[in-house]
Amino acid sequence: MINAVIFDLGGTLLDFNPDQRPWLDWEGVGLANAYAYLSAQGYRIEEQELVSYFLDHLPERWERAAQGGENLRLGDVMREACAACGVTPTEPEIEAAVAHYIEPLDARVVPYDDTVETLAALRAAHYRLGLVSNTMWPAEYHCRELVRFGLLPYFDHTVFSAEVGIWKPQPGIYRLSLAALDARADEAVFVGDMPAHDIVGAKEVGMRAVYKQNDAFLPDSVEADAVIERLSELPGVIERW
What we know:
Blueprint: E1 4-7, E2 14-15, H1 23-40, H2 47-66, H3 74-84, H4 91-106, E3 110-111, H5 115-124, E4 128-133, H6 139-148, E5 157-160, H7 161-164, H8 171-181, E6 188-192, H9 195-204, E7 208-212, E8 226-228, H10 234-240
Parallel strand pairs: 1-4, 1-6, 4-5, 6-7, 7-8
Antiparallel strand pairs: 2-3
Helix pairs in contact: 1-2, 1-4, 2-3, 3-4
């Protein structure tokens, strides 16, 4: 019997890229704002040098984190990029640069039109709800998003990869959520849009996995237990199980 439902965040509950920009172009918007802040503090760096270091290293760092290597935190990458440009901002300045990086990206985030109704329906049916997100952003920014869109009250537990140092599809991050929800893996469903992380990891720990279709992340050989186009389909899928 299913008694817990755990969600991915970006691409599943919230749309972080409604303009459908390529990922690295999307990151570039935040970097331009961080660069403007650092320049205003008097640091003489070339914008393209900062952007190139950041974007050249980010995909590899992200993949290492997902494979169970070192953690990935935005502040660390920002600090390393600055050092590569020959400057060493203070820790408060790094934190401010991170905030400036996130600001224009966060301003574009919107919930999908059926996110709230789906969470409300599952809560009304007495499922325990969790959230497991791969992100290099500090958790506080995502928590503010959840508050801003009225989503946080629906969740019994949330976990963000950079905060705990474990990334999907590593089994440990799913087990953290299951333990917090007091649910066995065979009593839980994971819902996500990135098969190589969301579906693979959930099934590895024994959960059922629902793939929310996303043209950017096609399933390839990964087999989900169910496929949905919209979140509003989810309560019916779970009820049939």
